[in-house]
Protein: Ferredoxin--NADP(+) reductase
Organism: Pararobbsia alpina
Amino acid sequence: MENFDVAVIGAGAAGMMCAAVAGQRGLRVVLIDHASSLAEKIRISGGGRCNFTNRDAGPANYLSENPRFCRSALARYSPQDFISLVKRYRIAFHEKHKGQLFCDDSSEQIIDMLVRECGAGNVTWRRPVDVHEVRAGTTFELSTSAGEMTAASVVVATGGLSIPKIGATDFAYRLARQFGLATVEPRPALVPLTFTSTGWEPFAALSGLALEARVSTSAGRTRGDFLEDLLLTHRGLSGPAILQISSYWQLATPLTIDLLPQFDATARLLEAKTGSKKQVVTELSGWLPARLAEVWVAVHGLAPDARMADVPDRQLRVLGDALNRWTLTPAGSEGWRKAEVTAGGVSTQELFSTSLEVRKVPGLHFIGEAVDVTGWLGGYNFQWAWASAVAAGQAI
Ligand code: FDA
């Protein structure tokens, strides 16, 4: 039987950070992971360069049934704190877009940094090791494939369900259920959206085409609205605008897409019509990629060579309104295989926001993506992993 102060289960972003913080406070920490390869999600993140935080991360960039829950942890460990750590390790980085910070070289540098931080805290590693059972008594008892262990505190950092092939499991939700804790139904987020093959047929040939668009959706009291790049695919829509809105989207609700957010397309079309000899396709090609203009004219029932002057105002209005308010209802998403994160998870009602400790099970903590706090695309999810990990690591 091995005895520890803290057992951290899951050695991803949040688990390594938490183990390092607790270890550096002098606690005896064991860090357990079932995967043979360390921190795969950090490794593949940001196209191999890890978008490790966002300079502007704040509570407004997160979804949760309790949007205020993340405030405390985010306020106490800010993007600037993580940037200072990265600078201490002399990891070169750059800002790419809207506050998103990436390593210049490789996400491996972030993994190495966290491993060294764990080393500074004398963290004991146990991996690949499976945790079969966690029992609560005066201390926690863990049955693992490496033997029995006891720990005064247990931190669950096993993440969400996205990308099962690199080791995602439902461990956190199962443990939550074992202790009678509520969970918010997990669902794929930051994920491409798909349409029925017949509905998408006219656009499928445009796969690979990208343009900036404003995409919005409403579900109950929450509304998402993003101005970002939109990418057409064989099966539907992707790109940053869609990944962002997917976290807000609910089945059977429509998306509204403004393909020309800079201006009122109907007014421009009616203005351009006067005395014009141009074809409608030519006019639209001045504003949109030409291939999209051709499909747009066809799906609105106009001949490919229809001239502006010959199209009734009523029809130009329909065409223009649809450009600013293209309303379409996805059939689904690409699911866990492609989702960058999991929305939902262990309910924040069950946890103290300052320590991520379970209210009714002292010593048990849930951190990172396992919790019902989901960030936007752009470094926000790692910032939550770091901040929630530090909150727990300091409180234990
Ligand atoms: P994480 O998933 O990192 O770690 C969980 C750990 O628990 C894993 O090591 C796993 O093996 C282990 N585990 C799971 N089940 C277990 C079990 N039963 N027993 C023992 N161990 C178990 N975010 C961001 O901010 N910037 C970015 O650039 C990206 N890029 C990105 C790309 C891709 C392709 C994906 C899939 C995701 C991203 N993300 C991202 C999201 C980000 O990777 C994610 O939010 C964090 O890694 C979550 O950190 P956690 O530590 O909570 O879980």
In short: The chain has a mean pLDDT of 97.
